[in-house]
Amino acid sequence: TVFFFEYVKIGLVLILGPLLGVTFGTIVMFIIYIWRSFEPIWRSSEQLSTIQKAIAGSKRIFSLLSEESKIKQPLQPAVWSGLQQSVKFDNVSFSYTDDDNYVLKNVSFEIEKGKRVALVGVTGGGKSTVISLMLRYYDPQKGTISIDGNDIKSIPTFEFRKRFALVLQDIVLFPGDVNSNISLEADNVSQEDIIHAAKTVEAERFISKLANQFETEVSEKGSNFSRGERQLLSFARALVVNPDLLILDEATSSIDPETERMIQASLKRLMKGRTSLIIAHRLSTILDVDEILVLKQGEIIERGTHVELIQQDGYYSDLFHLQFKSRNGEFADAG
What we know:
This protein has helices at 2-19, 24-66, 127-134, 157-161, 178-183, 191-200, 204-207, 227-240, 257-271, 306-312, 315-326, and strands at residues 86-94, 104-112, 116-120, 142-147, 150-151, 164-167, 176-177, 217-218, 245-249, 275-279, 291-296, 299-304. The chain is an alpha/beta fold. The strands form three sheets. The chain has a six-stranded mixed β-sheet with strand order 6-9-10-3-11-12, with helices on both faces.
């Protein structure tokens, strides 16, 4: 519409100008002024679509922020100063809906301090739901989850969440430098802490080769780093806060075998002496954990070490040998 009326005006000037004795130079100057006068309008119209999307997005954001949380904080919180004994699931059943369609059914296990426990199973078996319940994004309909003998509902969520570190499959890097992406701008994290964490997981090897090292700017979505480098940065981010519980949610399931081997040693150093819960499709990452829990359709059907489960020749053994065949004997000396 704006362009249409502008062209109409220019056409009228070109037709009527000579008839009214207006010089050619005056007509040219008039046309230039018309173009310039409409330039702000053009630019505003180009941004209109972006503004409309921003308005729609802000409505959704404010709607979410105004929604009352279903997770209630305790009126008389338990005294808890960090993981001392264990995290325990006791006959936990959970459904995302109000019916009896449970995605977890009578799940019981215990992660003792300093132990490493792994959850395995096919997609949809309930592994990620365990993490959601452990971080208390939801409350189970049946059973209890406890930390050091305290019902998780009796501990303020911010108290235990800040002591847990979560490494996800989809790694998110933020605008800023390497330092801020490791520390997440936490006030209690020093530069020495950042460097120590990076060295521990061997991220410092590639960081030291960057032009500005730890002050190197991170491109959008971390595109200036490889998949493996982004993974190591996420490990350093988890380690720098010295978490009581480390949760690895399929942290190596979408990397190639060569990159996986590169970060295996980093994972072992990250988990050394640290209470850990590992979820992975690639069973090569959990061969030496203290206990493996096998989930199928929301139930724990097998549990034990890697060697014990292989000897049982059950569901886990089938999964392991299936991966063994598909990856050309990469696990030939495992177990």
